[in-house]
């Protein structure tokens, strides 16, 4: 096997496929990258048996062949090379890598031991814009659960119908719903599935030259295709919670303020909350103020008032400041956020409207 590629395109390709390398596997070949050179193309594959990634780049192939090279070693080598042509020569047991005045003699593994890439036969699929979808996933990903006993909560519910894309995630303490309008006229009916949160986040953080991503489903797999990259992950089986029945139909109090003002006050008041994660919100409609306060038995207490627009009656709620911080951190600091309150031990609902509509329901803590 002998081929030549540019250092920049190889480094970019490695940043894509490295997401699929098994980090703690006892199977040596899963820590490597399958390199297959043929017909003017270098195909690179990685797999941890749950996730498989394939990426293709142009190459000057003088002799076809395939081999497996340690992913960590190859990445360390390539990122430190000059931005010049990189030549690979060999493959059976060892391979020579040369670039400018640098040369490396690397050990390789047998390509026949590498897992076959999954067969892709999508039963249904939808094509969506990468930019909008990536922004939406960033807003909901933190709310996915890390509890392995309830795998369905580790997923993000994707629903596409009638030119609307909606993402939903919950960890049972909070619920987030994002939606936006996109052109989906080519889609017949509704596309809905639960996608592993980590896979969804990873695939949209990969560098890509394509403006869209195709998301498809088989019986037990979710497939992403964007440009020259194919990402395959296991589907999450189960039924996503009926989130619509959790959303309150009315509220007693509505307050509206700038995200930056609320985020700044929250950050300052919570700075003393070392042993108590609760921050209290007291809404005063007559004064047009919300008072944020926190108390720490060891450190003392803190409070700050923020100007707000209020509709309804005076109200109070106590919430985990970290969870509130995740909410305001997902929003543009220049935008406005609304907090809708019911009774003190009922969930608070944050809402923000724009190109992407955002709803964040948060369970209260005891005052």
UniProtKB/TrEMBL annotation:
InterPro entries according to UniProt: DNA_clamp_sf (IPR046938), DNA_polIII_beta (IPR001001), DNA_polIII_beta_C (IPR022635), DNA_polIII_beta_cen (IPR022637), DNA_polIII_beta_N (IPR022634)
Stored SUPFAM superfamilies: DNA clamp
GO terms assigned for molecular function: 3'-5' exonuclease activity; DNA binding; DNA-directed DNA polymerase activity
Segments forming domain DNA polymerase III beta sliding clamp C-terminal: 244-366
UniProt KW keywords: Cytoplasm, DNA replication, DNA-binding, DNA-directed DNA polymerase, Nucleotidyltransferase, Transferase
Similarity comment: Belongs to the beta sliding clamp family.
Protein name: Beta sliding clamp
Domain of life: Bacteria
Residue span(s) of domain DNA polymerase III beta sliding clamp N-terminal: 1-117
Chief location: cytoplasm
């Amino acid at each position: 096997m002998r081929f030549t590629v540019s250092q920049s395109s190889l480094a970019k390709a490695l940043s894509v496929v490295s997401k699929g390398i098994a980090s703690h596997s006892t199977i040596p070949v899963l820590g490597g990258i399958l390199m297959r050179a043929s017909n003017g193309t270098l195909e690179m594959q990685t797999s941890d048996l749950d996730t498989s990634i394939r990426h293709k780049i142009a190459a000057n192939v003088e002799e076809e062949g395939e081999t497996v090279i340690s992913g960590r070693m190859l990445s360390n080598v390539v990122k430190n090379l000059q931005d010049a042509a990189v030549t690979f020569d060999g493959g059976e047991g060892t391979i020579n890598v040369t670039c400018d005045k640098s040369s490396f003699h690397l050990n390789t593994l047998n390509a026949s031991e590498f897992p076959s890439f999954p067969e892709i036969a999508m039963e249904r699929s939808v094509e969506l814009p990468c930019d909008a979808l990536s922004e939406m996933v960033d807003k909901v990903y933190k709310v996915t659960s890390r509890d392995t006993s309830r795998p369905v909560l580790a997923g993000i519910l994707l629903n596409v119908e009638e030119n609307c894309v909606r993402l939903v995630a919950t960890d049972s303490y909070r619920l987030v719903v994002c939606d936006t309008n996109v052109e989906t006229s080519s889609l017949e009916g509704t596309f809905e599935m639960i996608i592993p949160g980590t896979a969804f986040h990873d695939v949209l953080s990969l560098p890509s030259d394509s403006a869209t991503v195709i998301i498809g489903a088989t019986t037990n797999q979710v497939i992403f295709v964007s440009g020259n990259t194919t990402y395959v992950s296991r589907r999450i089986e189960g039924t996503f919670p009926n989130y619509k029945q959790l959303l309150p139909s009315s509220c007693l109090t509505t307050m509206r303020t700038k995200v930056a003002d609320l985020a700044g006050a929250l950050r300052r008041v919570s700075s003393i909350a070392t042993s108590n994660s609760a921050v209290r919100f007291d809404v005063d409609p007559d004064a047009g103020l919300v008072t944020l306060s926190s108390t720490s038995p060891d450190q003392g207490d803190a409070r700050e008032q923020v100007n707000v627009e209020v509709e309804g009656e005076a109200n109070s709620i106590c919430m985990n400041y970290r969870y509130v911080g995740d909410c305001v951190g997902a929003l543009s600091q220049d935008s406005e956020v609304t907090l809708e309150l019911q009774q003190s031990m009922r969930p608070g609902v944050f809402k923000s409207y724009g190109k992407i509509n955002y709803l964040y329901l948060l369970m209260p803590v005891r005052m």
